[in-house]
Amino acid sequence: MNVTLLTDKKTPTAMNPFSVTSNYYLGLLGLLLCLCGIPNSYAEEVESLDSIRLIAEDHALAQIDHSQFEDAVATAGSLDTRLQLKKCNIPLETFSTGTMNNTSRMTVGVRCSGLNPWTLYVPVTISALVNVVFTSRALTRGALLDAEDLEVQQVPLNKLPIGYLSDPSQVTNFELIRPLNVGAPITLSAVRPRNIVRQGQEVIIKAQIAGLQVRMTGQALKNGQSGDLIPVRNLRSGRTIEATILNKSTVSVNL
C-alpha cells in the first residue's frame, strides 16, 4: 500500500537579494535625512577668524596719527586655522599690547569677556608713507639751517630713520652738530638749537635797581639760547652773576 504523508511545513522560498539591498539603502537614506535635520550648532558657536583679523586691523589703524601717515593700510597676520574659539555673546574688545612708536609692526589683543571668555593676540603690519626732512645739499658742522637747505621726501614707515623730523620748521635756525651729505635725513641727534650767545662774548647787562634801569657791560661765561640762565661776569666790578638771555647781545638780571 502506498501511503502519502501530509505535512503543514511550507517549503522555504529563496530570499530576494534585491529586497535586502533596497531595505539597506532606504535605512541609510532615512539616517541621512535625520542627520540633515539636526542644526549645525557647533559651526554657529565658533568665532570667525576673518572677523577677528578685521577688528585687529581696524584697531591698529585707529592708533595711527593720520596727519603724519599717508596711504595707511593694516594687514593682520594669518591665524592658526585649528583655532576653535567659541563665538562671543557680546561684542569683542581690542587693546594694544604696547606703544606703536612709528614702527610698522604691532600686536593687537582681541578679547571676549562674555560667557566663554578668551583672549587672542594678533600680529598686525602697518604700511604707510611718512614725510621726512632731508638735506638738499651738503652741509658743514655748525651750519645754520634754513629752508633752502632742506627738502621733504616720503619714506615707507618700515624704513624711517631713528629720530626723524617731518616738518622743516622744526629745525629752521637750528645748527648742525656734525656735517651731513646731500640727501641725508635730518634727525634730532644731528641738530641743536642755535646758541645766540657764545662763551666769551661781550653782552649788555640790563638790571633794575630801586626802580631805575641800569646798563653794564659783561662777558658771557657760557653758551646759551634765548631764555637760558647763564653766568655773566660784570667787567667793571669783576663780579659774576646769573643772567637771562634776552637776545643775541643782551641779558637781564634782577638785583
**C-alpha geometry:** elongated
Radius of gyration, whole Å: 42 Å
Counted beta strands: 12
Task: Please bin the fraction of helical residues.
Answer: 10-25%
Q: Mean of the pLDDT scores? A: 84
The major beta sheet can be summarized as: 5 strands, antiparallel
**Number of helical runs?**
3
Task: Please indicate the count of domains.
Answer: 3
State the separation between the terminal residues, measured CA to CA.
Answer: 164 Å
Structural category is: alpha+beta
H/E order of the elements? HHHEEEEEEEEEEEE
- Extract low-pLDDT stretches: 1-15, 32-43
Strand content: 25-35%
Family: Belongs to the FlgA family.
InterPro entries: Flagellar_FlgA, FlgA_N, SAF, SAF_FlgA
Domain SAF: 130-192
Keywords: Cell projection, Cilium, Flagellum, Periplasm, Signal
Description:
By secondary structure, the protein is an alpha+beta fold. The chain has 3 domains: 49-128, no CATH class; 130-193, Type Iii Antifreeze Protein Isoform Hplc 12 (Alpha-Beta Complex); 202-254, SH3 type barrels, CATH 2.30.30. The protein is built from 3 helices and 12 strands. The chain has helices at 17-36, 41-44, 49-62, and strands at 69-76, 93-96, 105-112, 118-135, 150-156, 174-176, 191-193, 202-209, 212-220, 229-234, 240-247, 250-254. The strands form 3 sheets. Strands 1, 2, 3, 4 and 5 form a 5-stranded antiparallel beta sheet that branches. Mean pLDDT is 84; it is low at 1-15 and 32-43.
